[in-house]
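Hi everyone,

Forwarding the result from last night's run.
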Amino acid sequence: MRFNVLVGEIMKTDIKSVGPEDDVEKAAKIMRDNKIGSVVVKSDKNILGIATTRDIVYKHVADKRGNKIQDIMTTDLVSISPKMNIEAAARLMVQKSIEKLTVFDKGKLVGIITNNDILGVEPALFEVLLERMKMGGTPQADMSEYAQCEACGNYDDSVGEIEGEYICEECKGS
């Protein structure tokens, strides 16, 4: 079963952000007011990480790690290309045990896709993924057809080795 809806077709593009020195409370209010589960953390034009409701609850409230976003943000972003299909996005979320993926195109943040975005479009995809997880397997057995581009960080099925680096088709043209 293949799903041909692309990440770029359903991702959210109105990305809210905060700075690393901002208070956790500011991020929480932005999330509440916009009914979203995360904010991107950036400094000038650099993306530093993401702060999610889970980060706030687990790290700020439960672990009391600090009052600034930089104290609780997640810095190891998992990204995907807008040209990938939502099945690949869902598999990547399951593999990495996350609920959101940042979407980068040519090195620029262009959106965020969540498990709820995918569920809204393809409920059957989540049923398949959940059943496979319950059986102890990973969706589609593994993610071997997808690799991470060393240039942009996106997971893509077009990644190939060029002069010792693994680069996706999009970055090959850059």
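The first strand starts at residue 17 and ends at 18.

Cheers,
N.
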